[in-house]
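User: Fold this; C-alpha cells only.

Assistant: Input:
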Amino acid sequence: MTENSVTLTLIGGPTAIIEYAGLRLLTDPTFDAPRTYEGGIALHKLSGPAFGADEVGAIDAVLLSHDQHPDNLDELGRAFLPRAGVVLSTPEAAGRVDGVTGLAPWQTHRLGEVEVTAVPALHGPEGAEELSGTVTGFVLSAPGEPVLYVSGDNASVEVVAAIAARIGRIDVAVLFAGAANVGRFGDADLTLNARTAVAAARELGDAVIVPIHAEGWHHFTETRERLVREFGYAGLAHRLRMPEAGVPLAL
C-alpha cells in the first residue's frame, strides 16, 4: 500500500470525489442549490455543493448508494449520471434509472484492476427497507492499494461488523453519518450518529474513518463538531479525518 494512495474531495452532503488506483469515483451525486423537496416527507437542503456538476471533471464510475431520496441523488445529480463511465447501485435502482448497473449484496464488478463489491446497508432500524427502500454500500480493492469501504446510508453497527468480518481488513472507511432523522422511525436514525459511528469504527479495526453526509440538510440531527468530540472522548481521534468541502484530503 502506498502512502496517501487515496484522495477524497468532499463536494457536499454524501457527494465526494474519490481518487483510487488511478480511477476517479463519485459518490451519491447531489449538485442542486439549496431548496425544499416536497413529497410524503419534505426534505430541506440548506447548503449547495462546493462546485457544480460541470466542474468535477471526468468520472470513471458513480457509486450510488440508492436513487430514491433526493439527498442522495437530486435533479442535477440524476442528469449527471450519463456522463459517468459506469454507475453502480442497487438492483432496484437499475430497474428505475437507465444506465445503472445493479449489484446485489456481495456481487462484484471490475473496473480495470479495481474490484468493487456491493455490501449490505440498512437505512434505519431493522425492517426499515419497507419504507426506506434498499440501499447498498461498496468495498473497493486493488493490488497494492488500501481496502476502501463506503458505507452508503447505513445506520446499523451490526451490518458494519458483518462486513468487516467477511472482508477481513478495511484500511479506509467513508461513513455516512449526521444522525439523519425525518421522524419516520421515531428516535431511530437513518444513518450513523456520533455514538454509533464510534461503535462502527471499533468494528473496523484500525481503519481511517472519514465521515461524510453529515452537513447541509435540515434532517441531520447532529453536528460534525459533536462527531469530532465523540471520537475524541472515545480515544479514537487519531483515526478520524474530517473533510472540508472543496479541499482534497489525502488518506
